[in-house]
Amino acid sequence: MRRALVLVAIAVLSILSIKGQETRTITLQMLYDAVEQNHPISGINPLLDSLKNLQIKNANASYLPKVDVNASASWQSDVTEVNIPFPGVTIPTPDRDQYRLSLDVGQIIWDGGVTSARKEIAIAQAEAEKSSVRTELYSLKDRVNEVYFSIILIDVTQKQLELMRTELASRLESLEAGVNNGVVLPSAIAGIKAEIIRLEQKMMELPSRKKSMISLLESLTQLDFYATDNFVPPIVNEANSSKLNRPELLTFTSQKSLFDARSSLVSKKRMPIISAFVSSGYGKPGLNMLSNEWNPYLMAGARLTWNIWDWNTTNREREQLSIQKRVIDQRLQAFEQGIESAVKSSDNQIETLTKQLELDSEIIELLYDVKRKSESQLANGVISSTEYLADFNAAARAKLDMEYRKILLNKEKVKLYYILGIDF
């Protein structure tokens, strides 16, 4: 009686807790979309775009005039003196202290393509980091798959246990009527009652396990889920194992593109730089070095800078970048081999589960036939409740195994799509 009251109380509390909550259908694709939109990692991409734009603006700024204010004061131990006498001409001796204040403006005319190369690096680096973000987000799908199918398996188990309990309760009611009519011995119903209690114990464990799985799912998707939510297994067709569209492939490609852009910059640093300049100032002396007066001055011209020999550092930098690209090629090859192995393993598992499911129906039919005979024998007092429960549990176990295998087959197909990087 006390146990019945406890069960009634639990049911009432459950009804009150879910009252007003809308029953929603939760699909795997909904969770994928939520992870991509809500996970903190997804917030990195806008930051990468901002960083790229700032780097490009800084690169473009190299073509804007460079304006500097320079000031200097100096004293020197000796100065140039002209001691050759000229009749009627006096050549002054410069003072040993000199002062200068100037405004210098420089304008790059051509930098050999360095600025455009730096912009290409900024774009390539942003794409490489975005690809890494996509790879991180994609890896979360595997965790979502595990949690999602764990919830579905819990729901399937709950449903099967409820069916078993309902069937045993019906059988118990029939046996109790037989006891009242003197057809069945009272000892026959004790085992049935004990089995019902064991089923209720198992059913009490499942909600807490499901709650833990839902908490994990909420942390991954940043969504709220309720007890009334219906988690639906996806409908998945056979995947084409020849297709491969993993985000890691784009990551490898973008990393190689980044090294190409860096290699281009290394080469263009050796190109000559042509620039124009204007310098306007006030100094003592000005441009006339033989004057000891403060004078304004103006100077304008063009300048060419060309590093014609760098001790082979440019070639070594290019070789370093080439080696790094080959490292990426090796990692790509290892990744593709790992994917190929994972695909074969998943294909084998799908084939095994498919064959097992083909036999499950036959096994269930045989065991349920045995169970039906045991029900009749138990009702007639031919066998004990222990013998009946053995046949009952065998049939129920076979049914549950088949339901499990259906979910596991679905899960393995989803896993194969994940391994290949394609949508189902």
Describe the secondary structure blueprint for this structure.
Elements: H1 2-18, E1 25-26, H2 28-38, H3 44-60, E2 66-75, E3 97-110, H4 114-180, H5 187-221, E4 230-231, H6 247-268, E5 273-284, E6 295-305, H7 313-379, H8 385-420
Parallel strand pairs: 1-4
Antiparallel strand pairs: 2-3, 3-5, 5-6
CATH-derived architecture: Up-down Bundle
Order of helices and strands: HEHHEEHHEHEEHH
Low-confidence stretches are 1-20
- Briefly note the structural class of the backbone: alpha+beta
Rounded radius of gyration (Å):
41 Å
How far is the N terminus from the C terminus? 51 Å
Give the CA-based shape.
Answer: rod-shaped
Main β sheet profile: 4 strands, antiparallel
- Can you say what the CATH homologous superfamily is? Outer membrane efflux proteins (OEP)
What is the percentage of strand-forming residues? 5-15%
What would you note in describing this structure?
The protein has 424 residues and is an alpha+beta fold. It has helices at 2-18, 28-38, 44-60, 114-180, 187-221, 247-268, 313-379, 385-420, and strands at residues 25-26, 66-75, 97-110, 230-231, 273-284, 295-305. The protein has a single domain (24-67, 98-420), classed as Outer membrane efflux proteins (OEP), CATH 1.20.1600.10. Strands 2-3-5-6 form a four-stranded antiparallel β-sheet, with no helix packed on it. It has a two-stranded parallel ribbon with strand order 1-4. Helix 4 (114-180) runs antiparallel to helix 5. The longest helix has 67 residues, at 114-180. The two termini are 51 Å apart. Residues 1-20 have low confidence and may be disordered.
